[in-house]
Amino acid sequence: MKKPIARLITFCISLITLSASASTFEKDWHTYANYQDVVTTHIHLRLNVDFETKQLKGSIEHQLKYLNTTTDSLILDTRDLDIHKAETFDGNNWSNTTFKLAKRDAVKGSKLMIALPKGTEKVRIHYNSRPEASGLQWLDPIQTAGKKHPFMFSQSQAIHARSWMPIQDTPAMRVSYSADIQTIATLRPIMSAKNNPQWNKKGLYHFEMPQPIPTYLIAIAAGNIHYKKMSKQTAVYAEPSLLDAAAKEFEDTQAMIDATEKLYGKYRWTDYDLLILPPSFPFGGMENPRLSFITPTVIAGDKSLVSLIAHELAHSWSGNLVTNATWRDLWLNEGFTSYVENRIMEAVYGKDRAVMEQALAAQDLNKELVELPKDDTILHITIEGRDPDDAFSSVPYTKGQLFLMYLEQQFGRKNFDIFLRRYFDDHAFQSIDTKNFVNYLKSNLLEKHPGKVTMEQVNRWITQPLLPSFAPKPSSDVFKLVQENMNAWFSNDLKLKNIPTNQWTVHEWLYFINNLPQDISLSKLEELDNQFKLTQSTNNEIAHAWLLLNIKRNNSAVNTRLADYMISIGRRKLIVPLYKALLQDPKRLAFTKAIYNKARPGYHPLAQGTIDALFEKGKNVE
Ligand code: BES
Ligand code: ZN
């Protein structure tokens, strides 16, 4: 038994290390929260999903932990919320307390200050979100697969959770959460938490997320959502008409989990389900824990686009278990995840496919590097004063991935696998920023295997623009053959119909289309389309690549399909490049505007924002 004084000293040391671990992070610029003084440890939501008014209405309860005992206010992030009442709980009673909502900042939203009388253990806030909440989309029945019921979903990353909950909205801190969600009985809500897949007659559902997560991973959706189990740990939630196709397309999800566990240790979130959203979902996927949100545009019928599932699943380690501490460190989430995604693809579908996917991603990155402002090509990007959405690019993804591939090459796969697995274990359920990662890398990899990589090389990757000269250059033998066939066609040594495209995978098609000469003639485009019916391709990635090339060549033969595509899909990655390319040509402004006028009401607020800005920029140039 320790003496009381020794116990006191140990206690003080543990306090110091506890607060040190939070405060050694760089301050998150994108939050107003006073999380150095007081933190929420658990959230309880009681919300009504009101489709009539397009509002979430109810209350949120914060369970508090004090890091500084003199703290007398709780500062939360909000954006466009109506706050009705705040109450505090002292262990016995609830009483009203005062609060103040500050003026709205264009990036961060409105700071909410709540007075904390001494001894406050919990805070409860009564509020509602507004129809224009940046983190929610409310869909009319016509925008869904079934066309009969409305649908709503959240997209909280990066700083949109504050538009539907008053919270400490920073990835530096973690909360567990629970929720009671009410909706009309003909619909069902679902959250990124443990939930009962059965419908109930009252429309009242309970959710529990026992593991601590950053707030950007709190997610909600509601609609005519049904359930189909795929394997012991996996299931799909979707509108009825999509359920079977989705379950077939994503049937390898369990094999992906098994492969990742072998590489990086146990899956720590019990079940892994997929929620298939309507096509206006602005991303490919979102890694909400236990329940990734997935665009329907990847249900291709041939599993050709399932690397998206590998990606969202990989976040269960990189991102959800070990989390970027600020949005400057996004590459720690997305770069690691792109690397892990590719390792999963290799394990489940083989090396050829994994390398093809690396090569396509590297080509996309190289094209983007030419266009981006130089500072935005730095992994440890500066985004103070900016909305993280505006700095979004493939840099944190693919440059981050290439950096990890480089480390793997230099240290050998075996050593690098051991390192990465330990990294996940050592930081499980914690956040980390770039500086702390670099220190960890130095002591756990560089110094353990000296003489392989220098700190200068690491810093070149992390703090400098563009790619280092020594970056890996993924190259696929399968693509070399595609290139040879393409060259032979252009030099008239091979007829189009004699190219062995019957055996081609979607990836080979993508390489082929992306690598056609940018000045290809209209007659060659026509010949290609006659032979391969590319304009009518039902694979959304192939259609995207083909439409983009035709826009650049100003080929109006694809216009009808182009308009259909842009009106029916809201995934930013697939539509934004098409708008950008169309807006290059002032003569097509009326055509582009006509498409956008029709499409805009169906797009998510995020996609609307991005495309509005493109039109604005175009105006300045005129
Ligand atoms: N977490 C991201 C989406 C995200 C990133 C939202 C940053 C907001 C801010 C998700 O995991 C993702 O990366 N989605 C990609 C998937 C692709 C790279 C396979 C997408 O939506 O395209
Ligand atoms: Zn991701």
Keywords:
single chain; 622 residues; alpha+beta; 7-stranded mixed β-sheet; 5-stranded mixed β-sheet; 21 strands; 39% helix; binds ligand BES; binds zinc ion
Characterise the protein shown here.
The chain has helices at 4-23, 240-249, 253-264, 307-314, 330-349, 351-371, 395-411, 413-426, 434-446, 455-463, 477-490, 506-514, 522-532, 540-552, 559-568, 572-583, 589-599, 605-621; strands at residues 38-50, 55-66, 73-78, 81-89, 94-97, 99-101, 110-115, 122-129, 136-139, 151-154, 175-182, 188-191, 204-213, 220-223, 226-229, 234-238, 272-276, 285-286, 291-294, 322-324, 430-432. With 622 residues, the protein is an alpha+beta fold. It has a seven-stranded mixed sheet with strand order 5-4-8-2-1-11-13, with no helix packed on it. A five-stranded mixed sheet has the order 15-16-17-19-18, covered by helices on one side. The longest helix is centred in the middle third of the chain and has 21 residues, at 351-371. The N and C termini lie far apart (79 Å). Ligand BES binds next to strand 18 and helix 4.
